[in-house]
Amino acid sequence: MTTQTIKQSRQADDEIDLGKLFGIILDAKWLILCTVVLFSIIGVGVAILSTPIYKADALIQIESKSSGGISAMVGDMGELFSAESSATTEIEIIKSRMILGGTVDKFNLTTVVSPNYMPIIGKGLARLQGEQISLSVSRFNAPSYAVGVPLTLEVIDSEKQTFRLLEDDNNVILEGKVGELLEKNGYQFLATELVAQTGDSFTVSKISKLDAINKLQENLSISERGKQTGIISLSFSGEDRAKIQDILNDISQNYFLQNVQRNSAEAEQSLEFLKGHLPDIKTKLTASEDVLNRFRQENESIDLGLEAQSTLKVMVELEAQLNELTFKESEISQRFTQDHPAYKSLLDKRETLLKEKERLNKQVQKLPKTQREVLRMTRDVEVNQQIYIQLLNKVQELNIIKAGTVGNVRILDSAQSFSKPIKPKKALIVVLATLLGGMAGVAFVLIRAAFHRGVETPDQIEQIGMPVYASVPKSIQQLEFANKLKRNKGSNNELVLLAEANPADLSIEALRSLRTSLHFAMMEAKNNVLMISGPAPSIGKTFVSTNFAAVAAKTGQKVLLIDADMRKGYLQQCFGLRWDNGLSDYLSGKTSLSNIIKSTSIDNLDVVTRGQVPPNPSELLMHPRFKSFVDEMSAQYDLVIIDTPPVLAVTDPSIVGALAGTTLMVARFDQTTLKEIEVAQGRFEQSGVEVKGVILNAVEKKASNSYGYGYGYYNYAYKSES
């Protein structure tokens, strides 16, 4: 084989042949079809037996800040206590432990109860048969070490509603009946309802509140409808329609109440602050009034002039503005930093008012002493009075805000569960299972084809430089004969030979073609001895040898068929003969030559069976007696055919091949690989045996017509039969 030929073959092997792939799939159509049907049946079973999952949904609106109503009444104060938040923020609030924790506590979701059914299909079968069992537990407390540990609840008597709670080691923890609070060793258990038969069991476990919240979050879906709409959609899924509806309603209600409390919390805090300062301001007002009255009494009721009264009025208004700015600064500081323009504007206004106040104070210093004292005292009274009135107004405003707070959240749609389950989607499951079955079947076939590199055409063998003398089609009748020999192994007394039973079979016709080809090929051989071997077991060497011998004998040639497979040869069964008094017996000197040659019912055909299974077959074949035997038989017969074991299993064929004039190898269609043929040829060449060609046996008509090379090490076990 030249380098160019090797490169061409390897290049052809690297190419993807779509026709071959299609042919491989077409050849395995029944396997693929069965796989599709199997997966479809499994899909139907899954769709029917799967537990239905229902869905409940609710709708919540996050309202924007309103300019009317309470906000209009209280002005800036209303804006302060009705801050807006985004839908994303509100969604995260709903998912928080603060909201979901209340729902977990209300429905006792830290207690997980699940009925025990038959694995995989039990729950579905029970549902289809209407044999639903249930257990309601209103209270279950366990020691810290037992949290997360599953316990088993067994029903003792369904009529009396008695049960017992067991650990994994069948240790009884609690025992009692429904409606009774059971307490022992840190365990508390109260079952309120039990629907089950005697002997049924449940798995009960206490999980942490955090785990319960996380489990609740897994089944809760929250999203905003549209973009910046403020409409939040909530959905919750589960097996129990009524329960998921109640849970979702509770989550919505918890969120609504939390929102109201959040919006009124700041007003409540400010109200408490102002109420705490009102007594101090009132005390100061009373004190300043008393001081003013005493001074007037002591100085005989001094009246202020028009200029002083005008100055007093301005000073009081100025103090009122400063106090108002103080309130606003307190409010703004909660919303903005000092760098904010609104905060800077307030500070600038305060600075202006302080300058005006300083100017008025200088003006007052020009008045007489008595009028200055009266003016100061009167200013203190009116300023304190103004502050007190402002605080009272703020308190009233905050009371209105607190009383009128409804939050900026509105529940548009309360939770409702759908009548039809959202899972499983039965049609989709069946379709996907069918598609998966088809893909799995095709993948299996292609992978099997990729790893299996058996020869499929004579061209593949000829590409490695070995001629193919015949392609023998697979015979259905021969398969029947082979099964018959397996059933009657060692005790067959009938002629079981395809060449005699059906001479017109295509396999026999192929052997006739082989006979013609060998007639000319053996003219140049050193003798008339033909050895038939092969790389591996179970490739049809004996079938080719026996039927070819019969075909050759039909031409009038005197043919001798020798079974040189002294380990597992069964050539004698095809002719209804026994294996005793065979080749091994002659080579070991136990019998004479005349006793081992057995005639058959076929004219001109004699047979030498394998004989007793020897411990040293290879050594017997290397004995000079075997060479003498072959030479003598070659002289007595027109054609001597020697059936040998596989060359990759034992060395016997190499020994026999040295005496044979012609050597042929049998390869089985779609089983023997090119690498096996190459390795077998190499074994013969190492022994100086030239292989004339190959017989491709059991050829089938297949859609795939591509080829490939197999690689690897081949080592076959070939043990003797006892």
TrEMBL record:
InterPro entries: AAA_dom, Bact_polysacc_biosynth/exp, GNVR, LPS_length_determ_N, P-loop_NTPase, Wzc-like_C
Protein location: Cell inner membrane
UniProt KW Membrane keyword: yes
GO cellular component: plasma membrane
Enzyme Commission code(s) on record: 2.7.10.2
Domain of life: Bacteria
Residue ranges of every copy of the Polysaccharide chain length determinant N-terminal domain listed in the record: 14-106
Spans traversing the lipid bilayer: none
Keywords, sorted A to Z: ATP-binding, Cell inner membrane, Cell membrane, Kinase, Membrane, Nucleotide-binding, Transferase, Transmembrane, Transmembrane helix, Tyrosine-protein kinase
MF-aspect GO terms: ATP binding; identical protein binding; non-membrane spanning protein tyrosine kinase activity
Stretches assigned to the AAA domain: 539-651
Membrane topology: Multi-pass membrane protein
Domain Tyrosine-protein kinase G-rich: 369-450
Record's catalysed reaction(s): L-tyrosyl-[protein] + ATP = O-phospho-L-tyrosyl-[protein] + ADP + H(+)
Family membership: Belongs to the etk/wzc family.
Protein name in UniProt: Polysaccharide biosynthesis tyrosine autokinase
Organism of derivation: Vibrio alginolyticus
UniProt lineage: Bacteria, Pseudomonadati, Pseudomonadota, Gammaproteobacteria, Vibrionales
